[in-house]
């Protein structure tokens, strides 16, 4: 079953259950998928990889907004962003913890022969490919930088 079909079914269930937080998150996912499908150069059906990228983008937006709201002491808006983020994250593959990311990055560094921070671009490209959908770019970048310095 495609993500879009799953989201449509979950929207109906959230409407019946009157779960407003879940409904907001699901509607955000549906809107983002429809927007991605109508962009120039995209085919009618989205690949699983493209769906994951859309979801990751939504989660990143929610995290950034939540940080801003928290700094501005807007607890009401902060809570909304966190609720939506949790709903969206439920549709992403399980994220790896930092230790697992470090192990994979160490393997990438060994394969590429990187020795210093100058090789970070080469390592980041390979690490992002291996960890696509399983870790966010910021965490990968932090781990690569720590291991190469």
Major sheet size, sense and barrel closure: none
Binned strand content: under 5%
What's the total count of β strands?
0
Mean pLDDT: 87
Report the end-to-end length measured between terminal Cα atoms: 44 Å
Helix share bin: over 70%
Question: Regions with pLDDT < 50 over 5+ consecutive residues?
Answer: none
Secondary structure category: mainly alpha
Q: What series of H and E elements makes up the topology? A: HHHHHHH
Number of helices: 7
- Overall 3D shape: globular
- The radius of gyration is 18 Å
Please tell me about this protein's structure.
This protein is mainly α. The protein is 74% helix and 0% strand.
Question: What's the quick description here?
Answer:
The chain is mainly alpha-helical. The protein is built from 7 helices and no strands.
Write the layout of secondary structure elements.
Layout: H1 3-17, H2 20-38, H3 48-71, H4 75-89, H5 98-112, H6 120-130, H7 137-148
Helix pairs in contact: 1-2, 2-3, 2-4, 3-4, 5-6, 5-7, 6-7
What would the keywords be for this entry?
globular
